[in-house]
Amino acid sequence: MYQEVPESFIQSIPAPLQNSNCKKSHFRAPFTLFTSTRKLSLTQLPTDSLADCGLHRGKPAEKKARATQGRAMKTRLGCLSQKSDSYSDFSAFLLNKHEKPIRCLKLSTEEAMQWTESFRVLLDHKYGLAAFRAFLRSEYSEENIEFWLACEDYKKTKSPTKLSSKAKKIYSEFVDVQAPREVNIDFQTREHTRKSLLEPDHGSFNNAQKRVYSLMERDSYPRFLRSKVYRDVLNQTQNSSQTPRRCS
Question: If DSSP states are collapsed to H, E and C, what string results for 46-75?
C-alpha cells in the first residue's frame, strides 16, 4: 500500500533560499512520514530544507474568520459615522418615485426659513416634511414620522371596515411591544391604545400620536434646524435664486 522513500530522495531535498520567510520553529512538531519498511520523523530532516513549504502552526480558518469580523466591524462603523451628513444630495428627499428632487422644485429661501417658526409649519409644508423625513432617516428614527403620518391617514378613513383593518396594521407595525417599527411611548399609552382598538374609532391613536409628536417637536425638530440637511436646503435655495437651473 505504501512505497518506500529512497534515502537518495531525502538527501536530494534542496537547501533553503536566502529570502525565505518561514521560521524553523514551525517544524518542531513531531510529524511522521510512514513508508513500507520504516518510519521517518519529520524533525529528523534538515530543518532548513523546509523553508519554502509554506506550513504554519496557526489555523487558517480562524485567521480568516477574524479578518472577516474585522471587515464587518469597519463597515458598521462607517455606516454609523455618516449619519445626517450623508444627505448632501437632495434627490434623497423624494416623497415617492414620481416626485422630482427638491433642488429642481420651486422652493424659495423665504419658505425654507419659515420652517423655523414652528414644528407645525414644517410638517404642513410639502418639502419641509420631505426634508424632515430624510433627516430622521439619517438618524435611524424614521418610524416616528411614519407613525404620525399613518395616524393622519387613519383619521381620514371613512369606511368602518377599512378603519378596523388600518387600526390593526398600525398597531402591529408601530405600537405593539417589539413591533417592527416600534415607537417610543410609555406603557400606559400603549395599553390605552390597545384597549381602544377593541372598538376602533377615529380617535383610537390620538394619545399615542400626541406622545410621538411631542417627542419629535422637543427632540428631533431642534436638531433638524441645526443639521447639515437643513443648511444644505437653505444653500440650495439661495444658489437657485442667484443662478436659476433648468430641470428636466
Answer: CHHHHCCCCCCCCCHHHHHHHHHHHHHHHH
On the 0-12 / 13-18 / 19+ scale of CB atoms within 10 A, 17 is exposed
Greatest CA separation found in the chain? Answer: 96
Q: How many CB atoms lie within 10 A of CB 4?
A: 10
pLDDT tens per residue across span 16-33: 555 545 444 444 444 444
Q: Which triple of cell numbers denotes residue 36?
A: 513500507
pLDDT tens figures, 187-220: 999 999 999 999 999 999 999 999 999 999 999 9
Please give the Cα distance from 219 to 105 (Å, whole number): 28
Contact call for residues 195 and 165 (beta carbons, < 8 A): no
Beta bridge mates, 40: 33
- Could you report how far apart the first and last alpha carbons of the chain are, in Å? 79
> Residue written as cell 395616524?
151
The secondary structure of residue 217, as a DSSP letter, is I
Determine the residue type at 174. F
**Strand (E) or helix (H) holding 147:** helix 142-155
Across the chain, the runs of DSSP E, i.e. the strands, are 32-34, 39-41
CA pair distance 123, 129, nearest whole angstrom: 5
Chain centroid to CA 60: 30
